[in-house]
Amino acid sequence: MSIDRKDSHNLISAAMCHGALRNYELSLQAFNEAATMTDDGGTQDILSHSLDIILTVYAKYTSKSLKL
Known about the structure:
The chain is an all-alpha fold. It has helices at 5-20, 24-37, 41-62.
């Protein structure tokens, strides 16, 4: 069986995400709390964007979504 560079990258990414999934619920809670506590609009935008990325990756690799 031959694995090309793209497949290899996808497998590595999936493995890394799988390892991180155990901490996603805590990460989501921390991002949510930080986003609600920041007064600076720019910081809040960055936190919201990061939260969106985490939710997207979590949903992709677990086939389920999280609600905050």
